Amino acid sequence: MAKVLLIEDDIQIQELVRYSLAKEGFTVITASDGEQGLDLVRKEKPDLIILDLTLPVIDGFDVCKLLRAQKDTATIPIIILSARNDVVDKVIGLELGADDYITKPFSPRELSARIKARLREGQRRNELSNEPLKWGVLEIVQESYIATIAAKPLNLTVKEFELLVVFVANPYQVFSREYLIQKVWGYLSNTDSRTLDVHISHLRNKLKALGPVLDAVRGVGYLFARRE
């Protein structure tokens, strides 16, 4: 079964998560501060990381940023588990590359379900064809998480990359905000649509060399197409 790393300084929460996930067949390892968590990521190579934000030594935001900056950890699923329920904290965490955000107090059953969903999504990514997606001078290699325009790398975040794949694989199709949120972020509610809009804005800026290809459709969502 999958190996889960919990980076959390609250011992009671460590024990609760360890106990509930062990019953589901997961192997759970724990770290009590951000520095120890980063060390364990390198040593243990977990399949998924559960990350608190308020951590000693290195806080959760910086841990997330560091993990996403390294090629060998960039695609490990990260679920933030935090008592901080402010929308700004959620937006920052997701912009830094977290895949999901759960607020405390939490349901162990819901946490388990979200872990399984993230691992299934990771498995589907691993099964992707190595055949690149192309749109003019834009080329996307899904398996390697590489996107280039005229052979120049775009340096996308994981979420920007996943959004781009959805659009380029389905040009001229209008996607609702709700669909894109569910497709890329999974369990995020519609109230977090601001997060999507921020990512779309960043992605649009990085695609400027292609011209105006990413448009908002008023009252619906977004469309990827070459404007005539």
Topology:
Blueprint: E1 3-7, H1 11-23, E2 27-31, H2 34-44, E3 48-51, H3 60-69, E4 78-82, H4 87-95, E5 100-103, H5 108-126, E6 133-135, E7 138-141, E8 146-149, E9 152-153, H6 158-169, E10 174-176, H7 177-185, H8 193-206, E11 214-217, E12 221-224
Parallel strand pairs: 1-2, 1-3, 3-4, 4-5
Antiparallel strand pairs: 6-7, 7-8, 8-9, 10-12, 11-12
Please summarize what this structure is:
The protein has 228 residues and is α/β, with parallel strands linked by helices. It contains eight helices and twelve strands.
Would you mind describing this structure in some detail?
The structure is a single chain. The chain is built from eight helices and twelve strands. It has 228 residues and is α/β, with parallel strands linked by helices. The chain folds into two domains: 3-126, 3-Layer(aba) Sandwich (Rossmann fold), CATH 3.40.50; 133-224, Arc Repressor Mutant, subunit A (Orthogonal Bundle), CATH 1.10.10.10. α6 (158-169) packs across α8. It starts with a strand and ends with a strand. The mean pLDDT is 87.
SS elements, strand count: 12
Largest sheet: 5 strands, parallel
User: What share of the residues does DSSP label as strand, in percent?
Assistant: 15-25%
Report how far the terminal alpha carbons are from each other: 51 Å
What general form does the structure show? elongated
What is the fourth-level CATH superfamily of the largest domain? Response regulator
Rg (CA only)? 18 Å
**Number of continuous helical runs:** 8
Helix content: 40-55%
Largest sheet: spatial strand order: 2-1-3-4-5
What is the structural class? Answer: alpha/beta
How confident overall, as mean pLDDT?
A: 87
The CATH topology of the largest domain is given as: Rossmann fold
CATH architecture of the largest domain: 3-Layer(aba) Sandwich
The CATH class name of the largest domain reads: Alpha Beta
